[in-house]
Design a protein that fits this description.
The complex is a heterotrimer of chains A (279), B (269) and C (359). Chain B is an all-alpha fold and 269 residues long. Helices cover 78% and strands 0% of the residues of chain B. Helices cover 24% and strands 37% of the residues of chain C. The chains are: A mainly alpha (279), B mainly alpha (269), C alpha+beta (359). Chains A and B meet through helix 1, helix 3, helix 4, helix 5 and helix 6 of A and helix 1, helix 3, helix 4, helix 5 and helix 6 of B.
Chain lengths: 279, 269, 359
């Protein structure tokens, strides 16, 4: 029917043109070469060999992966008590306002927020000034993996709290009441009943965090000092200084494949055990 | 701290601390933007607006701002329109391949922006869109449409399934029904989507960095400034940028939120 | 005799493998109030939707004034529907809702508003004109839905169980209003319901449907007194249905052996002696007496339950062999403490008040 095509087609066409095709193109470009500083259609595997064989790539991969995984874990742990509080321990109006507030930073400028940490932790920043009052330092707090993780947390924490709050809020209250009725203490109820019941939402929140941290460019750049570089930094470098788009494309494709595999595993973990448990 | 009340208080304090962490960067930048001292640190040197004056006088920042506004406006309109189309189709029809259709449209925000940016760069490079604001907007639309889709779809979920049929029954064709029933009904969601997508586009730095070339948007200009020397102007620009985003997002939330409260209380007596 | 306005000719509607409507044919005369009635899932709503053009018949034809209607889109037809859920537009005020159909027909703003106000006044809701729809009570919405459909002054009005969400008190009031409107406006009403009392109270003719097929068409009283098959007899209620076998024929009566014993009923030309049959005896045609008189059918029975519904009493009795009877009498007859559970009576009715249906 013409009507339904007329409405269904525009988004599809746009996404095909500006999402699917560019991606297909990106994969194709991994096989192209750069001759005389110009991108030339070709079919070579040199880009793949160069990148996958490079020591700096492999260490950047390991570093990025480890940092992202650690962030996913830390964010989930830090967010959980807060999400628990919002879901169960505050009044509905406080909950509503909190959620309203939490959405806001999510949509504000991320680089500027990271810059804020940069100046707070810089040798002239607030932290060092305070330490100076007790005659300590100045300590160089920047350019470490930990400060990079702090940046990742700034990016992901609002989202994780929201998703976890939502997941916990959706758990059937009667399950928890039944547990308490049978003599389960609050801490045990949380661990043995609540978390498994909210498992899907909690794992999804962690999965999103992993994806965001894995791909982030700003924190490793501004807080981590790009040493060691993450994959995103490597990618941007290949474009900025080397102008070597095919190599950048290789990094990009490797990243996407890794993330898809990670998502598949995590979704499998989230939904998979539902079947196994019953038996 | 073994009592239930004690535990509750501890949890609330913890949550407040987490919120403080989340909001600290925003507050810090805003506060220091008024600090007369060159270095954003303690002790406080006095209230001053000189950094704002410097920012307003900076031509590159002004240009960046104008570009960002143009891109944000275009992105908001196009992505809200596409979001409306996709939401309506999702609401109304079942068809073969619908899951793939929906996945295709909602996938982009799950892909790291660096990769989206690179893909845009290589592709638009071939078709001559790099270095243009249109090129940036095209990429932004891909990223923002899912948000518009979500907002409109949420609103459509409240649509009485008989309303379209009632409209046809009273003489309105499918197209007229779209104009006279669906769009007016979705108006709050459409408005909220416009604000939200504008906010996302306005702050988007990565796709813009890859694609905008010489026609920098404000976030790209900011990124350059951030990698340079520590400058107190950044605090001023940063605060202005925060203000724009916060206003847009708060407006969007208020519009959607009011609808939800009305729905809960105003029906069926 | 009014002219035939709408004809449904062997309509069939399938959804996948499920048959919603099968071989439905009947005509509707101009100005009639027709009720289509049946249990949930009988196909009445689907039939209505086909008249409105919201579902397309799989086969068969719908004709309006002799012209085939099947291919007309819903918006090309003049068959406004009053919805069960009212389907009022929440983003429009009451007046704007009523104006909607007029706007689609190209009426300019001034005349449109005047006409809408006219109909709002006619339905007694003129003071609600600027109100938002979500601030109305059920009864008020009902009237807005009616005003909206009637404002375009159609030849035919379709109503899909419009009173089902109202409380009983309001429902009875609205029934009277609808009948009054029908008489004043002289337009055709096609009314869908699963409440027998509603259909019988308002309609000139009733179409009874079950499982997608028409079971019986007729004036309410005609159907009530003479259901044509077991389904209809059960559905309209108020009848005793006694399965049995014809044992003897004498003149125009037959003797049927049933669980209540032998019973005399009016013979039916279609059912022969020796065959199985159902004896239908209306509950209000049976009287209860303390002693036998030797007239008609007399069955001794014991009271099991008594139900009081307003001015009517329904008595449920049981015979010695375990058969059941239901009797309906006006309240004033049963007063004086005569009715007690366990008390025995003679249930009596003349043979001509029992008739036969195929088993």
């Amino acid at each position: 029917m013409l009507f339904y095509l007329a409405w269904g087609a525009p988004p599809l066409l746009w996404q095909l043109l500006f999402f699917v095709v560019p991606f297909g193109f990106l994969v194709a470009v991994t096989f192209w070469s750069v001759r005389n500083f110009r991108l030339t259609p070709d079919f070579i595997v040199a880009n793949w060999q160069h990148i996958l064989g490079a020591g700096f790539f492999r260490s950047a991969y390991a570093y990025t992966f480890a940092l992202a995984a650690l962030t996913a874990l830390l964010a989930s742990l830090i967010a959980f008590p807060a999400a628990y509080t919002l879901a169960f321990k505050v009044s509905p109006s406080v909950r509503r306002i909190s959620i309203f507030l939490l959405v806001v930073p999510f949509f504000t400028s991320y680089p500027v927020r990271i810059y804020s940490w940069q100046i707070i932790f810089s040798p002239f920043g607030v932290i060092n000034k305070l330490l100076g009052q007790i005659s300590v330092g100045p300590i160089n707090l920047l350019n470490t993996p930990w400060i990079t993780i702090l940046g990742y947390l700034t990016l992901t924490l609002p989202l994780v709290i929201l998703l976890q709050t939502f997941a916990l809020g959706n758990v059937d209250r009667t399950l928890i009441e039944a547990a308490k009725n049978l003599g389960c203490g609050p801490a045990r109820a949380v661990i043995t009943i609540l978390i498994p019941a909210a498992r899907v939402g909690l794992i999804l929140a962690a999965a999103f965090t992993f994806v965001l941290a894995f791909g982030d460019y700003i924190s490793p750049l501004l807080l981590g000092g790009s040493k060691p570089p993450t994959l995103s930094v490597l990618l941007a470098d290949q474009v900025k200084s080397g102008n070597h788009w095919p190599r950048a494309a290789v990094i990009a494709v490797v990243m996407v494949v890794t993330l898809m595999a990670a998502l598949v595993v995590m979704l499998g973990l989230a939904y998979g055990q539902l079947g196994r448990r019953r038996a | 701290m073994k009592t239930a009340a004690g535990r509750r208080l501890l949890l609330q304090v913890y949550t407040a601390a987490v919120f403080a962490f989340v909001f600290a960067p925003i507050v810090t930048i805003a506060v220091f933007s008024f600090n007369a001292d060159r270095f954003p640190s303690l002790p406080w040197a006095g209230f001053s607006l000189i950094w704002y004056e410097a920012v307003f006088a900076d031509a590159t920042i002004a240009r960046g701002l104008v570009n960002s506004l143009i891109v944000a406006a275009a992105t908001a309109v196009i992505s809200t329109f596409l979001g409306l189309c996709a939401a309506y189709v999702d609401y109304r029809y079942r068809f073969v391949g619908k899951t793939i259709y929906t996945a295709l449209i909602t996938l982009p925000p799950t892909i790291p922006v660096v990769i989206l940016g690179l893909a845009m760069l290589t592709f638009e490079g071939r078709i001559g869109l790099t270095g243009t604001l249109s090129g940036v907007a095209a990429g932004h639309v891909v990223l923002c449409t899912p948000f518009a889709l979500a907002l409109v779809r949420l609103r459509l979920a409240d649509l009485d399934p008989n309303l379209e049929a009632a409209s046809w029954n009273l003489g309105a064709s499918r197209w007229t029904t779209m104009r006279d029933v669906i769009v007016p009904f979705c108006f709050p969601a459409i408005t909220a989507a416009l604000f939200l997508t504008a906010a996302i586009s306005f702050d988007e730095y990565m796709i813009a960095w890859f694609v905008s070339g010489l026609n920098e948007t404000l976030p790209v200009r900011l990124l350059a400034m951030l990698q340079g020397q520590v400058s107190p102007r950044i605090n001023a620009v940063g605060t202005m940028v925060f203000s724009v985003s916060i206003v847009l997002v708060v407006l969007a939330q208020l519009i959607i939120g009011r609808r939800l409260r009305v729905r809960a209380s105003g029906t069926e007596r | 005799m009014a002219p035939t306005m709408l004809e449904l000719d062997r309509l069939e509607k399938r959804f996948g493998n499920a048959i919603a409507v099968a071989d439905v044919s009947f005509s509707i005369l101009k100005g009639e109030f027709v009720a289509v009635m049946g249990p949930s899932g009988c196909g009445k709503t689907t039939t209505l939707r086909m008249i409105a053009g919201l579902d397309k018949p799989t086969s068969g034809e719908i004709r309006l004034w002799g012209r085939r209607l099947n291919e007309d889109e819903p918006w090309e037809r003049d068959t406004p529907l009053v919805w069960q859920s009212y389907a009022l537009f929440p983003f429009l005020s009451v007046r704007k809702n009523v104006e909607f159909g007029l706007k689609q027909r190209g009426l300019p703003a001034g005349p449109r508003r005047a006409k809408a106000d006219e109909w709002l006044a006619r339905l007694g809701i003129a003071d609600l004109a600027d109100r938002a729809v979500d601030r109305l009570s059920g009864g008020q919405r009902q009237r807005v839905a009616l005003a909206r459909a009637l404002a375009i002054e159609p030849e035919m009005l379709l109503l899909d169980e419009p009173l089902s969400s109202l409380d009983p008190h309001l429902r009875v009031r609205m029934q009277a209003e609808l009948v009054r409107l029908h008489r004043e406006l002289k337009i055709t009403f096609v009314y869908i319901t699963h409440h027998q009392s509603e259909a019988f109270a308002m309609a000139d003719r009733v179409v009874i449907m079950n499982e997608g097929r028409v079971q019986q068409i007729g004036a309410p009283q005609e159907i009530f007194r003479r259901p044509l098959n077991r389904l209809v007899a059960e559905f309209i209620g108020g009848n005793n249905i006694l399965p049995g076998k014809i044992v003897e024929t004498k003149a125009a009566t037959v003797r049927v052996s049933t669980a209540l014993g032998d019973v005399w009923a009016t013979a039916s030309p279609e059912i022969d002696s020796g065959e199985a049959a159902l004896v239908i005896v209306a509950a209000d045609r049976i009287e209860l007496d303390s002693a036998a008189r030797g007239e008609g059918n007399e069955i001794p029975a014991r009271v099991i339950t008594v139900e009081f519904v307003g001015a009517t009493v329904t008595v449920f009795l049981e015979t010695n062999d375990g058969g059941e009877l239901r009797v309906q009498r006006p309240l004033h007859e049963m007063e004086g403490g005569k009715l007690q559970v366990g008390r025995s009576f003679i249930a009596r009715w003349p043979a001509e008040h029992g008739f036969l249906l195929a088993a």
